[in-house]
Design a protein that fits this description.
This protein is mainly beta and about 350 residues long. It has three helices and 28 strands. The chain has helices at about 20-25, 30-40, 205, and strands at about 50-55, 60-65, 70-75, 80-85, 90-95, 105, 110-115, 120-125, 130-135, 140-150, 155-160, 165-170, 175-180, 185-190, 195-200, 210-215, 220-225, 230-235, 240-245, 250-255, 260-270, 275-280, 285-290, 295-300, 305-310, 315-320, 325-330, 335-340. The strands form seven sheets. A four-stranded antiparallel β-sheet has the order 1-28-27-26, with no helix packed on it. A four-stranded antiparallel β-sheet has the order 2-3-4-5, with no helix packed on it. Strand 10 (about 140-150) and strand 11 (about 155-160) form a beta hairpin. The two termini are about 30 Å apart.
Length: about 350
C-alpha cells in the first residue's frame, strides 16, 4: 500500500475532561524534576541505541510505569522481569502463570496487569512489592490489556466463543462485564481523556477487520471503523485524540481521527508491525516491525516515517517512557530487549 498523506485531526482537549486528566491522571505522575533531567539529557538528535539487555526466554511484551521509571517484560512462558529504567539492570524475575501475551500498567495505583491467555486469566502484580496479587478469571483467552487510570478500570481483549472485551474493576479485581464483539479480538487501547476504548476485532471473512469504539462508562459499542486486512495493534494519543492501528500484511499504520472516527491516512512502515505505541509528549509513534528486525519512528505532526532503527531478532513488543523518551523493544527470537533513546 502506498503511503498517503493524512489530514490532521483536532488537537483540542475535550472540555471538562482535560483538567482532571492533566492534574490527576497520566501526566500528573511525571515530576518537574524528571522532566528537566530528561530535557537536559535529550536536547537534540535522532533516535539512538542505548544498550541491549539479555533477558532470556522469549520476551513478547513490554510496558513501563513512567512514575517509577520501571519497565516490565513478560515472555511467552509467563516469566515477568522487572527492569530499573535508570540503570537498565534486571531486578526480580518471577512466574505469573503458564503462557502470557499483553500487559498494561496503572501508574496511579502501581499495579501491572498480565494477560495469561493459556489459563483464561488476568494476572495482577503489585509494582511496589513485585508480588502476584491475584488472578482474575476471564473465562476466555486474553490477548491485550489497557487501563484507564482515571476510573481505575482495566479493559481486556478476549477470545472465547467470540471476540470481545472484558471489563475488570481495578479496585476490587473483579470481572464486571464481558462485551461480545466479532469473531476474534487483538490488541486494545484506551483514551483516558474521552474514556473511549479501542480494540481490533476480526468480524469474519465477509466484514474483515474493524476497530470497535467502546464507551468506557456505559460499556456500549459506539461504532465500528473498517480497517485493513490483518489489523493487530492499536494505540492512542490522548493529547491529539488520534488513534493508530497496525496492519500486519499491509505493513502499514492507519491513522484515525478520534473526534470523527474516520480513517484519515495510512503510513507505510516495516514488515509485520504487531505493536504500536505513542509518546504524547513528543507526538511520536513507534512500531515494532517483526519481519525486518527494526522500529519505525513516525512524526505525529506530519504522519511520516522519519527514521528506521535496527533492533534485535523478531521484535514484537515495544513501549516508551514519555518523560525520558526511552523505548524498550522486546526481541522475541533474539531473547533480548533493545533500549532506544528518542532525543526529541
Amino acid at each position: 500500500m502506498a503511503t498517503a498523506t493524512a489530514t490532521q485531526p483536532s488537537t483540542s482537549f475535550h472540555p471538562g475532561l482535560a483538567p482532571s486528566f492533566l492534574k490527576q491522571g497520566y501526566l500528573r505522575t511525571h515530576s518537574p524534576e524528571r522532566r528537566s533531567a530528561a530535557a537536559a539529557a535529550t536536547a537534540s538528535g535522532p533516535v539512538s541505541t542505548v544498550t541491549t539487555i539479555a533477558i532470556g526466554g522469549r520476551p513478547q511484551y513490554v510496558v513501563v510505569n513512567a512514575a517509577t521509571n520501571t519497565f516490565y517484560s513478560v515472555d511467552m512462558y509467563a516469566k515477568l522481569s522487572v527492569i530499573d529504567g535508570a540503570t537498565n539492570q534486571i531486578g526480580p524475575q518471577f512466574s505469573v502463570d503458564t503462557q502470557s501475551q499483553g500487559m498494561a500498567v496503572n501508574e496511579l495505583t502501581n499495579m501491572i496487569y498480565v494477560c495469561n491467555w493459556w489459563d483464561f486469566e488476568l494476572g495482577v502484580v503489585n509494582g511496589a512489592t513485585n508480588q502476584l496479587v491475584t488472578q482474575v478469571p476471564l473465562n476466555a483467552t486474553c490477548w491485550g490489556a489497557a487501563v484507564n487510570p482515571e476510573t481505575n478500570t482495566v479493559f481486556v481483549s478476549i477470545n472465547g466463543n467470540s471476540g470481545g472485551v472484558a471489563v475488570v474493576d481495578g479496585s476490587t479485581n473483579a470481572l464486571v462485564k464481558t462485551i461480545p464483539m466479532g469473531v476474534g479480538s487483538y490488541y486494545i487501547a484506551v483514551n483516558p481523556v474521552t474514556n473511549l476504548v479501542y480494540t481490533v476485532i476480526y468480524d469474519g471473512a465477509v466484514s474483515g477487520f474493524g476497530l470497535y469504539v467502546l464507551d468506557g462508562a456505559t460499556y456500549r459499542i459506539k461504532t465500528r471503523i473498517p480497517l485493513d486486512i490483518n489489523a493487530c495493534g492499536v494505540a492512542v494519543n490522548p493529547v491529539t485524540n488520534t488513534v493508530y492501528a497496525t496492519s500486519l500484511m499491509e505493513s502499514a499504520v492507519q491513522v484515525i481521527d478520534g473526534a470523527t472516527n474516520q480513517v484519515t491516512g495510512s503510513i507505510t512502515v516495516g514488515g509485520y508491525p504487531q505493536v504500536v505505541v505513542v509518546n504524547p509528549v513528543l507526538n511520536r509513534v513507534y512500531t515494532a516491525n517483526y519481519w525486518n528486525n527494526n522500529v519505525s519512528v513516525i512524526d505525529g505532526n506530519s504522519n511520516a516515517v522519519i527514521q528506521t532503527v535496527g533492533v534485535g531478532q523478531g521484535p514484537e513488543g515495544i513501549c516508551t517512557d514519555p518523560v525520558t523518551g526511552v523505548l524498550y523493544v522486546a526481541n522475541t527470537y533474539g531473547s533480548t530487549l533493545t533500549v532506544l533513546q528518542d532525543n526529541g
